[in-house]
Every structure is written in C-alpha cells, then in structure tokens.
Amino acid sequence: MPKMHERVQRLHEIEAVIFDLDGVLVDSEPIHFRAANRVLARYGTAISDADYRTYIGLGEGPTWTDWRRRFGLRPSLHSLLEHHTAARLQEIAAGVPAIADAVDLARRLRDDAVPLAIASSSTPAVIDALLTALGLADVFSLRVSGEDPEVHAGKPAPDIYQCAAARLGVAPTACVAIEDSGPGVLAATRAGMFCIAVPTRWTADQDFSAADVVMESLRYFPLLVG
Known about the structure:
With 226 residues, this protein is α/β, with parallel strands linked by helices. The chain is 42% helix and 11% strand.
C-alpha cells in the first residue's frame, strides 16, 4: 500500500497531471543502458548497471558531460548525444515494455478530460518514439523535453516542470507530478507541485524523502483522489 503524507489533502485542488516518461510509463532504463554501452563500446569502455543507476534522473547533458570527462572520450558532447539518441531509437524500434498501470491511468485521465503533459529529460525524438510505441501519442500532445529552450537546467532543477505547467496554463501548485527518480522528485517539488513517486528496480536506492506520496504502483492512484 502507498505511504500517504498529510499533504495528500492537496489532491482535491489538483487540475492537471504531469508524467515523467522513463520508468513511469515505460520500463525503458534497460533500453537506455544498452544504448549507452553501445556508444561507449566504440571507445573501448563500458558502464556497469550499478554505476548507471546513479545517473538516472539527471538528464542526458549532465550524464554524458560526466562520462566524457570520466572516460576521456574525444568526440564532442553533441556528437555523443547524437550517437546515444540513434542507438536508443534502434532499441525502441525493437519494442518497449509498457508499465501497464501507468499507461491505463494516463488513458483514464485523458478520457476524463484532465490536462496532461510529459516532462522528460530525454530528447524530443526519443520521447516521440516511446509514446508512439506505447500507443500514447494521442494522449500526450504536450511534451516538454530536457532540450527545450525554456529548460535552462535539468532535473533536479524545477525548470522542466515549471515550463510544463505554464504551457498547460495551470499553476504549479495545482499540478500532480509522477516521478520514478530522486532528482525528478526534487524537480517537481521545487516547482511547487504535489509529487507521487513510484520507485523502480533501477531507482529504489535513491532518496524519495521529498515526495508527497511514495507508492509501488499507480494502480493505487484512485485511492488518493477518492
């Protein structure tokens, strides 16, 4: 059962729901992990899954900036990001594992005319490919990526959630954010949003103390809103 904090009462004031994508709607971290190692293999190096987990939620730019320094990679950051995006798109084309409870929730909210958005650190191309593969392209017309010009700093900074709320025309305090990572939770709460954390096997060791609610599955979401 979910752990509920006193601030759950705020849910009665909620007007919109903003989803993170990776780890929330799709179990895509294995895809990104394999793609990252395909790129790193070109330069004779690799990253372990345990090491990779420490970067989840930080965004593409900061992650590859650190790997470029750490592994002494000679290509430009732009080139590395392009290679990683291409590798991920190839992996996505082979199929993606949906997180059924989250996908079902998104469709129910859409059917109930609840304003929805995606706030993901991934690139626009990867976001679009994942949503298409999940059959959710028509559910999330508003998508904010880590590459958006209005997102000056990635998670855990609040920029991406502030941008999503502004484009929805809803105050951040009237939004629910759904996240699977510690940095994502901090981004949402720093934006002033009510945040539901749904840790995954990839992020279970991260710090979720800033979340308003921590639950094992979004099938519990209806219990929060009555």
